[in-house]
Amino acid sequence: xxxxxxxxxxxxxxxxxxxxxxxxxxxxxxxxxxxxxxxxxxxxxxxxxxxxxxxxxxxxxxxxxxxxxxxxxxxxxxxxxxxxxxxxxxxxxxxxxxxxxxxxxxxxxxxxxxxxxxxxxxxxxxxxxxxxxxxxxxxxxxxxxxxxxxxxxxxxxxxxxxxxxxxxxxxxxxxxxxxxxxxxxxxxxxxxxxxxxxxxxxxxxxxxxxxxxxxxxxxxxxxxxxxxxxxxxxxxxxxxxxxxxxxxxxxxxxxxxxxxxxxxxxxxxxxxxxxxxxxxxxxxxxxxxxxxxxxxxxxxxxxxxxxxxxxxxxxxxxxxxxxxxxx
Amino acid sequence: xxxxxxxxxxxxxxxxxxxxxxxxxxxxxxxxxxxxxxxxxxxxxxxxxxxxxxxxxxxxxxxxxxxxxxxxxxxxxxxxxxxxxxxxxxxxxxxxxxxxxxxxxxxxxxxxxxxxxxxxxxxxxxxxxxxxxxxxxxxxxxxxxxxxxxxxxxxxxxxxxxxxxxxxxxxxxxxxxxxxxxxxxxxxxxxxxxxxxxxxxxxxxxxxxxxxxxxxxxxxxxxxxxxxxxxxxxxxxxxxxxxxxxxxxxxxxxxxxxxxxxxxxxxxxxxxxxxxxxxxxxxxxxxxxxxxxxxxxxxxxxxxxxxxxxxxxxxxxxxxxxxxxxxxxxxxxxxxx
Amino acid sequence: xxxxxxxxxxxxxxxxxxxxxxxxxxxxxxxxxxxxxxxxxxxxxxxxxxxxxxxxxxxxxxxxxxxxxxxxxxxxxxxxxxxxxxxxxxxxxxxxxxxxxxxxxxxxxxxxxxxxxxxxxxxxxxxxxxxxxxxxxxxxxxxxxxxxxxxxxxxxxxxxxxxxxxxxxxxxxxxxxxxxxxxxxxxxxxxxxxxxxxxxxxxxxxxxxxxxxxxxxxxxxxxxxxxxxxxxxxxxxxxxxxxxxxxxxxxxxxxxxxxxxxxxxxxxxxxxxxxxxxxxxx
Lengths: 327, 337, 282
Hints:
The complex is a heterotrimer of chains A (about 325), B (about 325) and C (about 280).
Chain A: H1 4-16, E1 20-28, E2 35-40, E3 49-50, E4 81-86, H2 88-99, E5 108-112, H3 121-127, E6 136-140, E7 143-148, E8 151-156, H4 157-160, H5 163-166, E9 178-179, H6 193-199, H7 203-214, H8 222-226, H9 251-264, H10 274-278, H11 285-300
Parallel strand pairs in A: 1-4, 4-5, 5-9
Antiparallel strand pairs in A: 1-2, 1-3, 6-7, 7-8
Chain B: E1 4-7, H1 11-17, E2 22-29, E3 32-37, H2 56-59, E4 63-70, E5 85-90, H3 92-105, H4 112-120, E6 121-126, E7 152-156, E8 160-165, H5 168-176, E9 181-183, H6 186-202, H7 212-215, H8 223-230, H9 237-240, E10 248-255, E11 258-265, H10 286-305, H11 315-319, H12 326-336
Parallel strand pairs in B: 2-5, 5-6, 6-7
Antiparallel strand pairs in B: 1-8, 1-9, 2-3, 4-11, 7-8, 10-11
Chain C: E1 11-22, E2 28-35, H1 38-43, E3 51-56, E4 60-65, E5 76-81, H2 85-91, E6 98-105, E7 118-124, H3 132-140, E8 148-154, H4 163-171, E9 176-181, E10 191-192, H5 195-202, E11 209-214, H6 217-229, E12 237-240, E13 256-257, E14 260-261, E15 268-270, H7 271-274
Parallel strand pairs in C: 7-8, 7-11, 8-9, 9-10, 11-12
Antiparallel strand pairs in C: 1-2, 1-6, 2-5, 3-4, 3-6, 12-15, 13-14
């Protein structure tokens, strides 16, 4: 059970430690169902922290985002820890970053928040489009309770949860320095129904499906920037010398972009679904990522972001690796 | 020309009566609503709160070819312009945005690509009767039925639209379709006005911008910039979906022996935007970039062109993945002044 | 399209001569170019301090300061440091090759206001390129100005641009030239140290003097501090700024420092103006 008092007390204590730089959690947003990442440097800011079914943001992405600005002469780099609150999926992002050495284990303090699933913001805002006042939410008896302006309403999981949560097999943090409350039951079953639907199409239909979706892409790069696994300092798509893809926004270049990203995420995507959540033009990006997830799972019996001791899939080799995809 | 009535049933006839013209209108593409060129069978989708992508891309496309050339040659061929068209279903906030950006594109040197589309198209607005949760147009001198930047304004009266031509261009367009239009009664006009007033009263969020343009640069080192940029992802949503954001990049693109110099939207939120060839970046982090975005809209643009480059459409708030809320920033600015 | 002309469309020019100013990874090459169209050649007017957008079809464009004075003749000179895709391609150009030029852009040094004054330029590295036209201009109009002093330094003697010209100017008593290198090197007869220190060593009097500086941001910062120590008033100090640019005429948005556009309000700025803008020396 989520215990806000426990969460805030733990945060106060952690952020007061000398070896902790700041803590990243969640707080109420400025309107409706939105929540906001909360960066706190002092214990006084802990009272704003929340954890609720609205806490969709994967905060692990911030571990690799802080700009590495030049350090003034004579000063040492600040190697203190960043404390980060993680759900199950978010913890997998941290693990995968550790595997790839994108994040240093000594510089992160992981606060685990077992999670019963988060709300699909797009779905809920479609149901309730005009809510200005900040909405409180909680899990209760397997249902999602929202405190709406007209009073409390309960919703079954299937009705309001994000798709990734309905198939989630890792609702509990896979790695944490502290876990705030009891683990939750695993309810998700992965059947890859959406992927199978795409696989059922012939290649022409599938091409038409994706071209239709990808033609909408405005290349705002929010999917890349929100992704905890997209942290290259020098991304190929911004390289001009040589140019790997044109900056022109058209279906060909957009496809090149989205495919390049999907392939770079094969064996690395930890299914947090953030790319799809933030996409302003509703491209079903997780279908692409999940297709590759399924391939990797079937061909290499590998799931990323579970074991910090594992090797990155695309950088490891076994003599019995399948080769039938090489023509 | 007096106000006219366009029955919703006659929308198809109306579109046909406009003739061979290019007609842009909101179209659904999946869940996303954006302006696109209507095909023969298409009807404008006019039942919406606002489009995801603002209509700025009609006059300032996300990607456009400035000129083409053959590799090794010196001839530069510009695209043919001059075609006339109309854009239908523009929300008054987005129309105001265009008139704000006009000042920039005609500042000293005319931008022929933008201005030609501005003068070649007729802009038909659609009054906003149900403002969205994050609309704040009334704080910035706009209104749900403002007419700035428009050639005609339509108001939804359930089974029909009241059409009010505002300029000669607007009149000319509707005259072409005179056969499918009816005369509006005084009651029609009165009920539209009533709806406009009611809509203005429904705008729930607001900010008092007084003092912000003058004082904003004084908050250069304020903590608020670190606070608001901590969670920023550095993506292009707020700028690409902003109806007044107008920054662009110019790139040469070559396929085979065919080359083109094109321009495409760019965003001040990207690090590469200000990166010098030497590797030096005058805006090295999200803090400087966020600060520049707000200062540009709420102070620099006012210095240069006498108006805030924000119309309160609320898109940057609606679509920001991490709930960076410009009204919240402005409120903090007000408090810090 | 575009009855009034299309500002994005460049003129075609031919490279007449090229030579290296410096060698190495970031070598600097000077291109002397002439417009193909005689009408453009005749009607083109630029003033010291202005820039032009130069480039190659198929590669792209870069904003480069015009490093010659209009008093030198009906041609343009650009001294280009090899940096990115465009400047690397420009370095490949040989005499006879075609390139694109549009402009001129930006404001210029207020040479008329400065009549009767002493002029000091303080440059570092490639920052000498925008200073060269003002030196040449003053040299060509020597009757209108008092003394000309040139302070210029680079990392090593091999990194100094326009070297021969300084020797010539000193020999002909046209200007007092002070050169420096950052690091001690054999056979270097001049100052060793950074440009701001050389400035203190030269110790110019601020009386009836205009100081113009251009160079890397760090150097500019210290030069400004030192000019203040030498009692220069803010409005006696000028600098030229650079920023990434795409259009050159105030549309593309990226070159602003605070509320000023480098392409339109600059690149030449008076220190009194810039001082008020915190972002100016970022």
